[in-house]
Amino acid sequence: METPLSPAPLRIWVDADACPVVIKEILFRAAERAGIETVLVANQWLRTPPSRFIRSMQVAGGPDAADDAIAERVNAGELVVTQDIPLAARVLEKQALALNPRGELYTANTIAERLSVRNFMEELRGAGVQTGGPATLHQRDRQAFAAQLDRWLAQRPR
After folding, report:
1. d(CA 18, CA 53)
2. Total-model pTM
3. How far apart are CA 108 and CA 115, in angstroms?
């Protein structure tokens, strides 16, 4: 009698090039607490705490190398932490979840609008309009991120 194959364990993927340090620290604590593999992907070497659950993956340089590596490897149901809206769209297409460092969960209902706004802002910058950078990450953003992460961890299959 054969035993059914159990599904591969879920992972957290982190688009680490632009991920704030405080968000990485939240992820490190969660990885240890929940015993979940967390992979930081970047085009540079990253220091990670010694852990059997946390690792980094360095990819070749290039504008979308880390995004491509994550999109190729992510599985349905896994979580990707990213601020990159095109990556979030690719992740959603693979039935995975995408969460930004401010605690906003990207969804199929919101991603088209987010892509449209992103493309519009990129056009403005291309035309020389100063659009400014992202707002400062506040305590409420960190709390929102931690709450969404905890929800995902609690809902994942064991």
Report:
1. 21
2. 0.84
3. 11
CA distance 91 to 51: 26
The pair of structure tokens assigned to 71 is: 């999109």
The 10s digit of each residue's pLDDT in 31-84 is: 999 999 999 999 999 989 999 999 999 999 887 899 999 999 999 999 999 998
**Which amino acid is present at 69?**
A
State the CB neighbour count (10 A cutoff) for residue 104: 17
Using CA atoms, how far residue 102 sits from 137, 139, 146, in Å, is 7, 10, 9
Q: What letter represents residue 54's amino acid?
A: I
Cα separation values, 93 from 72, 100, 105, 146, 152, Å: 12, 17, 14, 24, 18
Taking the CA atoms of 137, 138, 142 and 147 in sequence, report the sign of the dihedral they define.
negative
3-state secondary structure of 47: coil
Residue 41 contacts residue 13 (beta carbons within 8 Å) = yes
Dihedral over alpha carbons 138, 145, 88, 157 (to 10 degrees): 180
Any idea how long the chain is?
158
Q: What six digits make up the tokens of 77?
A: 């149901």
